[in-house]
Amino acid sequence: MLSKIISTLIASVLLTGSAIAMADATVNVPESTILPPPAPSEHIPEPPAPNVRAYLLMDYASGRVLFGKAYEDQIDPASLTKMMTSYVIGQEIRLGRLHLDDKVTISENAWSKNYSDSSKMFIEVGKEVPVELLNKGIIIASGNDACIAMAEHIAGSESSCASLMNEWAKRIGLKGTHFVNSHGLYDENHYSTAYDMALLGRALIRDLPEEYAIYSEKEFSFNGIKQMNRNKLLWDTTINADGIKTGHLSQVGYNLVASAVHPTNGMRLISVIIGDVSEKERAAHSKELLRYGMRFYEPYTAFKQGQVLATKEVRLGDRDTLSIGTASDVSLVVPVNSVNRMKAEYSLDQKNLVAPIQKGTKIGVLNLSLDGKVIYKTNLVALNEIKEGGFASRTWDHVVIFFKDLF
Predict the structure, then answer these.
(1) Confidence (pLDDT) at 226
(2) Which of 104, 188, 265, 273 is surrounded by the most beta carbons within 10 Å?
(3) Euclidean distance between CA atoms 183 and 138, whole angstroms
(4) Is 107 a catalytic site residue?
(5) How far apart are CA 176 and CA 75, in angstroms?
(6) What is the CB neighbour count within 10 angstroms for residue 252?
(7) What is the pLDDT, as a whole number, of residue 394?
(8) What letters, b where the CB count within 10 A reaches 16 and e where it falls short, cover 208-223?
(9) pLDDT tens-digit readout, 176-206
(10) Domains (range + CATH), the chain
């Protein structure tokens, strides 16, 4: 019987300024894994610490939190909820179950959503409105009425749409989130975390680029009423922000998930502010986080797809060695001038590798650490297929494995 002991074989590879030989990379760190942010590097100032309920700055490429406070604490997302409503709409369009020119008949339930703190698109009962306009009314005008109209159109009712939203939340790794409506008005069973809201923003950017593009639009007109996007960073030419969503409830304060791209190296960052005191302050604090990240972090690709991290002996196969690496590029952002202090280590899932092994099979785990702290994890996979060997070679390998296990 082959032992299933985690291999203590650890390959330590010092990372230099240039990318080091590694392989095919898988998905980045699993969405559910939160690694501790690294300490500020030498000659880099402490990051901003706005006086708000929760905040964070996230590396879009890896999904890693660079720094923050209380970002796993339960919060009321308010209109940040509409990012998930938008995500569901975008996925329905992608799957061909919804089209931009589909007409939605506005119900009295959607029209009457006029509570305190309620933002509206100003749709009218009985009117037919295209999905494209309702979608923009949700994203740009933050219309609660548009949210309900789309929820009813997609799922038949608000509660059914909330169930769909929760299913998508699970798929994209939102572990601390539960939705009961599509608009974000207060309900004690409607909650999230700053971390989950950052992951949701990341999923919108990654999975639905056409949907995300709407978040950069500055104004929206419907029924003769022009409404401006409440994300003030879109007008700030110094930060290069292109989204994403604001939120506000009187008992919660002012929320903002924002994203910006570095103008020269293409590094994208995502910031989250929860519970600020005003529109002006949430924009200012978001800008502060993003500017710090743009100034004191840089993108780094540790390993490229197709590079081989190591070759390992395989028993019972038609070949003796297996190339291992990752399934996609290993890309992340790191503090400036810190690459020479990074190290890569890997461990294998099994002491002995035994054929058959399909290409892409998980073989182990790769860790990247900075100053001794793990900042990135991803799976190692087989880069080639190993088929079962012939009778003679398999018999000999069984003998070798037997005696290895004895000693």
Answers:
(1) 96
(2) 273
(3) 9
(4) no
(5) 9
(6) 21
(7) 58
(8) beebbebbbeeebebe
(9) 999 999 999 999 999 999 999 999 999 999 9
(10) 13-25+304-406 (2.60.410.10), 54-296 (3.40.710.10)
Residue 342's CB: how many other CB atoms inside 10 A? Answer: 21
Q: Give, to the nearest 10 degrees, the angle between helix 82-94 and helix 144-155.
A: 40
Q: Is 123 exposed, middle or buried (0-12, 13-18, 19+ CB in 10 A)?
A: buried
| Active-site residue flag, 82 | yes
Which residue out of 62, 86, 142, 338 is catalytically annotated? 142
Distance CA 96, CA 64 (A): 32
- Cβ atoms of 366 and 298 within 8 Å: the answer is no
Q: How far apart are the first and last CA of the chain?
A: 15
Encoding tokens for residue 187? 């309900």
Burial class (CB in 10 A: 0-12, 13-18, 19+), 114: exposed
User: Is the distance from CB of 170 to CB of 259 less than 8 angstroms?
Assistant: no
- Please write down the long-range contacts of 112-116, taking CB distance under 8 Å and 24 or more positions apart: 113/144, 113/145, 113/148, 113/183, 113/185, 115/144, 115/185, 116/250
Own/partner pairs for 158-164, CB < 8 Å, 24+ apart? 158/109, 158/182, 161/85, 161/88, 164/88
Model's pTM, two decimal places? 0.84
Q: Which of 82, 245, 304, 312 is catalytic?
A: 82
Among 62, 79, 192, 286, which one carries the catalytic annotation? 79
Residues 283, 289, 294, 299: is their CA dihedral positive or negative?
Answer: negative
Write the CB contacts of 258 (distance below 8 Å, at least 6 apart in sequence).
Answer: 231, 233, 241, 243, 244, 270, 271, 272, 273, 286, 290
User: What is the rounded distance in angstroms from the CA atom of residue 326 to the CA atom of residue 381?
Assistant: 5
142 given a catalytic annotation: yes
How far is Cα 138 from Cα 121, in angstroms, rounded to an integer?
Answer: 8
Q: Per the structure block, which two tokens stand in for 141?
A: 């005008």
The region that residue 78 occupies, defined by phi over 0 for left and psi between -120 and 50 for alpha, beta otherwise, is left
Alpha-carbon separation of residue 282 from 11, 53, 239, 289, 400 (angstroms): 45, 11, 15, 11, 65
Hey, is 214 helix, strand or coil? helix
